[in-house]
Design goal:
Layout (H helix, E strand, L loop, with lengths): L1 E5 L3 H14 L4 E6 L2 H7 L7 E4 L2 E2 L2 E2 L2 H5 L6 E5 L5 H5 L3 E6 L4 H19 L19 E6 L2 E6 L3 E7 L2 E6 L4 E4 L3 H5 L7 E3 L4 E4 L3 E6 L5 E5 L9 E2 L5 H8 L2
Parallel strand pairs: 1-2, 1-3, 3-6, 6-7
Antiparallel strand pairs: 4-5, 8-9, 10-11, 10-14, 11-12, 13-14, 15-16, 16-17
Helix pairs in contact: 1-5
Length: 251
């Protein structure tokens, strides 16, 4: 795999090269650029599969590169600022590493490249990657009970699942609330990750239930759902799930 580093600090370039040689020796750094202008001139000429990109460069903002030349490969952003994460995932970003990052941080980012490649190639025999499983493998409906009556609810009708103590609520887009005799983890393993995401230990939401999203504190995200949660409840994306949630939204 061929990669280009866009970074204006020579020490950061050297550290990234050294770390890559340890955690991903299959990645070859074929070129580096230290400015927006240099990157714009370099990218169309050099064959590459991946970019490592800082955001604050000597002559401007790294996002200026996307406006001035096509970028058709995944980008791993590496920066000292946490305020650009959402914008990064809107611009080919597959991960967002904050300086100083560790070897394991970089290894996890590289691992996502393999996951994307498997998903793009479709499922293979023996694959254990849930995102690459055929849609038929995911549960399509849930049987619920209303008194003596029963009903089968399709996943297209479901807005979210909410754990409340020993109860698990299935809430539909039209506001109906049913109880399931299952745990949130059990349900999450049956849902297609294309349409559902577990944002914290109590909530799995569908994409169609999202009305809006707002910054909560730091880099956290508050999701406003439709239908709304019970009074006093908030849909907050767990800190350790924020990056994955942004990627899910930007697929």
């Amino acid at each position: 795999m061929k990669a280009i580093i866009i970074e204006d600090e020579p020490l950061s370039v050297a550290e990234l090269r050294n770390t890559l040689s340890e955690v991903a020796p299959h990645i070859e750094i074929v070129a580096t650029a230290s400015s927006v202008a240099e990157a714009v001139e370099l990218l169309p000429r050099i064959d590459h599969d991946l970019l490592f990109m800082d955001i604050h460069l000597g002559d401007g903002n790294g996002f200026d590169i996307f406006r001035r030349t096509p970028v058709n490969v995944p980008v791993i952003f590496i920066t000292a600022y946490d305020t650009y994460a959402m914008r990064a995932f809107e611009n080919k970003g597959i991960d967002y590493l904050l300086k100083p990052f560790g070897r394991e941080d970089l290894r996890r980012a590289i691992d996502k490249l393999g996951l994307l490649a498997r998903v793009g190639a479709g499922p293979t025999a023996g694959s254990s990657d849930p995102a690459s499983a055929p849609e038929e493998a995911w549960q399509e409906r849930f049987l619920v009970q209303i008194g003596a009556r029963m009903r089968s609810v399709t996943t297209a009708e479901i807005a979210y699942f909410m754990a409340d103590g020993k109860y698990l609520h299935l809430v539909t887009h039209d506001g109906k609330d049913y109880l399931l005799d299952r745990t949130l983890t059990e349900v999450g393993e049956k849902l297609s990750p294309r349409y559902f995401f577990r944002i914290n230990r109590r909530l799995i939401i569908s994409f169609e239930s999202i009305r809006e999203m707002v910054r909560y504190s730091g880099s956290r995200i508050k999701v406003v759902l439709q239908p709304p949660l019970p009074e006093g409840e908030e849909a907050l994306v767990s800190t350790d799930r924020v990056q994955e949630f942004r990627q899910w939204l930007n697929r």
